[in-house]
Design goal:
alpha/beta; 9 strands
């Protein structure tokens, strides 16, 4: 793994000059070159030596900045890093154009393998929840615990409020939407996203709103912004249609790590009704329901999410961190290698498929 201040030449060739990404107080941002992908990694210096490592993965349309508040809450508990998935935040597009859930999962796995930080406490929101579920299923050796905030797992009845996001996956819709909204200001766009993602947009401070506007203005200047959104949304839709051992619900059942599930009662993108199914699917799960939260509970209620994670950590440490699953692990023996092969077979789905939408 190489840590650099700029993307690889293949990625840099598509990058225009844009404003720098905001780095919050106490945070660091670095660029990490890996085979086929360059990832921007946000971190906080650990409060002390020896803290267990944690990695955070954002949702569709998001970035590592989505985790800044939670990372600050968990100072002194874990050694925190958050990645910008390929094509999002400050990470350039992947060299192969693969934005499938498997492609994103492969990027996370490559980073963890190269960094040698595993097993980590792995966090995922929305699209990041689907990605981290796949990582935990195919590479249990890399995951100590799994925390999922409104994970984008397949739903048979999608909420009407989530339909516009899903439509981004349809070929040509992103370009059409861009033309139709050409006159929209960044402030209007951010207000729309916050109304969709927050249970109560009024909880957003004026300063946080302005930071979001500045970040959106920066990203709208990137020529690949809408392509990354559409292809990643398409990747979610494709992942929803996969059956058998490739299916996300089947992979959820294979996760050995103690799992914390967090669902918001006002989530307009992931149905709150899916909380019960998720709690049954993950074999070692705890469920936190937040009636007033929306789609990004870690941004709305970071203190509550941090408290729930501390409880998960205490329970996992007290029970041997999932040692009770050893018998099940024997039954799953060999699935790790098989799943990696399956993941490679899935690799092209994001590029070949058809649709998505903003943030999920």
């Amino acid at each position: 793994m190489s840590s650099t201040e700029s993307p690889s030449p293949s990625a840099a060739s598509v990058l225009p000059r844009v404003a720098p990404v905001r780095v919050g107080e106490g945070e660091r941002l670095r660029s990490v070159g890996l085979p086929g992908v360059t990832l921007s990694v946000r971190s906080r210096p650990p409060a002390r030596e020896g803290l267990p490592p944690a990695l955070y993965v954002h949702g569709l349309g998001g970035s590592s900045q989505n985790w800044s508040s939670l990372m600050a809450e968990l100072d002194g508990v874990v050694d925190s890093e958050a990645v910008d998935l390929p094509g999002f935040g400050d990470s350039p597009p992947p060299d192969d154009g693969d934005y499938s859930v498997t492609g994103h999962a492969r990027a996370v796995i490559r980073y963890l393998d190269a960094a040698g930080r595993g097993p980590v406490h792995l966090f995922g929101n929305s699209l990041g929840g689907a990605v981290t579920t796949r990582v935990a299923a195919v590479r249990p050796d890399l995951v100590r615990t799994l925390t999922l905030v409104s994970p984008a797992l397949p739903e048979l009845r999608v909420q009407r409020t989530a339909v516009p996001t899903g439509l981004l996956a349809v070929p040509g819709i992103a370009a059409l939407f861009t033309r139709l909204t050409r006159e929209w200001t960044a402030e209007q766009r951010v207000r729309g996203v916050m109304a969709l993602c927050y249970g109560d947009p009024g909880r957003v401070s004026p300063e946080a709103f302005q930071h979001a506007v500045e970040e959106l203005e920066r990203r709208l200047r990137l020529p690949y912004f809408w392509d990354a959104m559409a292809r990643s949304a398409r990747g979610i839709v494709n992942a929803y249609t996969l059956g058998g051992q490739h299916g996300l619900w089947r992979q959820a059942e294979r996760v050995l790590a103690p799992t914390l599930l967090i669902y918001g009662g006002r989530d307009q993108l992931v149905g709150f009704r899916m909380a019960g199914r998720a709690a049954r699917a993950f074999r070692d799960s705890r469920l936190l329901s937040l009636p007033d939260a929306g789609h990004v509970a870690m941004m709305e209620y970071p203190d509550v999410v941090a408290g729930a994670f501390r409880e998960l950590l205490a329970q996992a440490d007290g029970s041997g961190g999932g040692a009770h699953a050893d018998a099940d692990a024997d039954a799953d023996a060999g699935t790790d290698a098989d799943a990696r092969t399956d993941a490679d077979a899935d690799a092209g789905t994001g590029a070949d498929a058809v649709a998505t939408g903003p943030r999920s």
